[in-house]
Amino acid sequence: MSEVSYEVLFNSAPVPLIVTDTKGEIKLINEHAVALLDDKMLAFSGLNFCDFIEKSFLKDYIKTDASFSFEDFLEIYQTEHKYWVKSKAGTIIYADIKAVLFESVEQSLYIWTIDPIEISKKLSYELKERVKEQLAILKVVEVFSQYPDTQTALELCLPIIKEGWQYPEVTGVRILLANDEEYITDNFQRTEWLLQAAIKSEKEQYGYLEVCYQQEVPAYGSSIFLYEEERLINILAKLLAIFIERWQAIEKNNADALLLKKITSNIPANTYQFEILPDGHTKMLFINKGNEAFNYDYDYIDIIEDTTGTTEVLYEADKAKVHNAFLEAYKTKKNLIVQYRIIINGIIRWRWLSAIPENTADGKTIWYGASQDITPFVDYVTSVEQILFDISHIIRRPIANIKGISKLLKDIKLTESELHHLSKLLLTASEELDSFIQQLNLSYEEKRKLNQDFQIDFSALVDKRNNFFDARN
Length: 473
Description:
The protein is α+β, with helices and mostly antiparallel strands. The chain has 4 domains: 3-117, PAS domain (Beta-Lactamase), CATH 3.30.450; 123-249, Beta-Lactamase (2-Layer Sandwich), CATH 3.30.450; 265-373, Beta-Lactamase; 378-462, Helix Hairpins (Orthogonal Bundle), CATH 1.10.287. 44% of the residues lie in helices and 23% in strands. It has helices at 3-11, 31-34, 49-54, 70-79, 119-146, 150-162, 227-264, 300-305, 308-312, 319-332, 375-394, 396-411, 416-452, 459-462; strands spanning 17-21, 26-29, 82-86, 92-103, 108-117, 171-177, 182-184, 194-200, 205-213, 270-276, 282-288, 336-344, 347-359, 365-373. The strands form 3 sheets. Strands 2-1-5-4-3 form a 5-stranded antiparallel sheet. The protein has a 5-stranded antiparallel sheet with strand order 11-10-14-13-12, sandwiched between helices. Helix 11 (375-394) packs antiparallel against helix 13 (416-452). The protein is rod-shaped and about 175 Å long. GO terms for molecular function: phosphorelay sensor kinase activity. It comes from Adhaeribacter rhizoryzae. Its EC number is 2.7.13.3. This is histidine kinase. InterPro entries: HisK_dim/P_dom, HisK_dim/P_sf, PAS-like_dom_sf.
């Protein structure tokens, strides 16, 4: 085949063809390539491939300057050789610039072709990008829902966010929080090719989400980032804000719960949050043991799951009374106040339970209250009663004797022998009274010591009472 035949074949190719040497000097150009030029009459003898770019519509999509060389173009070509461009006809095409290096003994040549692919390829490409963006959003939500640990979740989000951009291989991501915590991909460097969005809720800003290209990539129109990517970073920043706000709320609730438990563990009472069921039984929502010397010997986690442990320690005679008190509180929705006895290590102890109701938005009634050991108070009142009994019965006789003798001495004239006799009787009555008082003092002192150590057994006393706090008894 002659050289003329090859030239005819070259010009008849259905795509633009350009032949350059390794320095970019144009050796051949066909009519389809010339059609891409602003000036079709331009002579190409001795011109460079960069001149072709500068004098065609490609100059709007491949950024050049005065120092731009063929070597620079080859470097860009290695990164990206597909561009969305507007053709001379005004239609958007997907231009794929391809090159083949032909080497012979005499010389090496590049054969270039600009292959325009129509809108269907563009739609396919855009669909692929939209799928990547949606997957980034869905996977970030999935990470947030699976990992309660903030640090782990944020670290796992970085590669997911990175994959949502056009060129993930040169994309760096950073999450910078207001407390100076930083989560970054290994390749992150802040560059001029930056997208940034504030991570904020309605009330608070938590930091920034930044996405950078680590090197220049082909621009789409006038921006290196797609409009959809600018929208994507704002959506992702909003998601980060929502979940950081939720995490902070959970952490605050946990801290408040820990503080409440610490406080309630150091008061002389058991604290409760519970529901009363229609049958009078309870559903424990919260329970914490105080620092009382006498208390239930149960695992409180078990009590929340099964409240029968509390009724087992109730004194048998008080079980019905306590159950009825709970039933009454359920029906009336009024304060629950009940005194009852329990058995701890074989010893009967008195307790006082008081709880107030609160209606919730979902129609339930929750009771909040506490119970205390009031055995020392019972003992105090019992001791006062005993003292009154002792005064009215035990020391009544010597006092009556002293009073009668004193009246005789005052009202009647007595002989010396009668006075002497009455004096002996008065001394005997006084000694008897003194003896009783000393015995009572020893008895009260012993009771006081027992009360301080909480080691007194009241079973003999309380078994005879229906309700110590009922004024009718």
